[in-house]
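*Target chain*
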Amino acid sequence: MELDHGLDFEDYFPSMISSLGPEGFIGELCNGFSLLMDANKGLITFESLKMNCSLLGLEVRDDELLCMLMEGDLDGDGALNQMEFCILMFRLSPSLMDGDAQKLCTQTVDSMLM
């Protein structure tokens, strides 16, 4: 299912990596994960994502939220852990998947795994 809400998308990740460095950028992704996760489960769940979208004033349908979770859910548990969230953010950044930026992306992911 392709969603098109007529929104323009500007990918800030490459400039964030350039200014923050790999560790700083990963730290910011982890902060974003913490804001969206269910504090009791340590995961981004359907319920936590729905609640946070509402708090942010975003009107997102349930099927769209489920698609977001399914896109990043690598272990099939229906939720996103921190690593799945970070991997998803990298995959959704078109600039990080192009040419030289892919090398920077690989280095950043490698630093996450250490």
User: Anything to note?
Assistant: The mean pLDDT is 82. The CA atoms of residues 11 and 93 lie 6 Å apart. Residues 13-36 form the longest helix (24 residues). The two ends are 35 Å apart (CA to CA).
